[in-house]
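Ticket 4471: requesting a sanity check on a complex prediction with zinc ion. Repro inputs:
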Amino acid sequence: MAIGGLLWAGLRGVLGYVLGSPHGRGPEGLILCILFGPVGLLISFLLPRGRTCPFCGASIVKKAVRCIHCQKHLPPTAASRRA
Ligand SMILES: [Zn+2]
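Returned structure tokens:
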């Protein structure tokens, strides 16, 4: 029974990661889905989303001025100009 529960938690984690990744929410989706199941997945979709680096395509936070992956300076967005 405990093994089934662990397997189910792992499956939820993988599902949360896979569904969250295209939105830059992979790790958050994984953790929230393991802890809260479908509700956690919903929460991960409602969290504020990042954006994609125009140079390397990696997921970065919305207000970033420099990509943490390729170190290039990013053009300002409407959101970062307002802040
Ligand atoms: Zn980059």
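Notes from triage: Strands lie at 51-52, 59-60. Leaving this open until the requester confirms.
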